[in-house]
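haha ok so turns out i had the wrong file open the whole time. this is the CORRECT one, sorry everyone. sequence first:
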Amino acid sequence: MFSDSQARAILRKLVLDHIDKPTAEVERLINIIDDPARQIPIRGALEAIRTQGDNNFTAEELEIIDDLIYLYG
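then structure:
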């Protein structure tokens, strides 16, 4: 499983890898992901990828996403 900082780094990488042109909304999401005082926004990140990027995930990424959702809801 992942530590909190590892989960944040993985989620940040997923967002940046799957959204080609970061908007102000995506930058705000990245700031939330990086803020250890806030809950990790797994569903928010997936929604941003779905609406603003490509959601063609590899099998490894899907497994990681499943783990993150299990751990952080």
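The mean pLDDT is 92.
again sry for the mixup
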